[in-house]
Amino acid sequence: MASSLTCAGIVWAFLSFLCAAASCVGFFMPYWLLGSQLEKSVSFGTFRRCSYPVRDESRQMTVMVEQCGRYASFQAIPSTEWRICTVVTGLGCGLLLLVALTALMGCCVSELISRTVGRVAGGIQFLGGKCSCGGGMGM
Length: 139
Fold this sequence. Notes:
The protein has three helices and four strands, in the order H-E-E-E-E-H-H. By secondary structure, the protein is α+β, with helices and mostly antiparallel strands. Among the domains are: 30-70, no CATH class; 73-108. It has a four-stranded antiparallel beta sheet, with no helix packed on it. Strand 3 and strand 4 (61-70) form a beta hairpin. It is elongated. 23% of the residues are buried.
């Protein structure tokens, strides 16, 4: 297998993949905020939640659903800021993953990544990192 990357490029590709994978796992895991409600441990993130209250209309009371799951719809995300955070963080994760997978393909395919492509990929990766960090800070 021929590579179009230098040794530094190969290290960059693998570190990019590890960071993109960590970012995506963090985005999908519901453990951003931890707390308790109705004497139960609860946690949630921008995309998923665990142990959340639901109104039981048959018994006219609020009960805790003790399972993890995603929000039923985009509108079910608690606030507008939370929705923006979800979109921005998801966009950042997508960009990071796109660059990382392209870089990993560059490890296997000759002449895939030139100096210009590497610079553009670095810029996209920078933008993806800013989106991921900005989405997390906007929370």
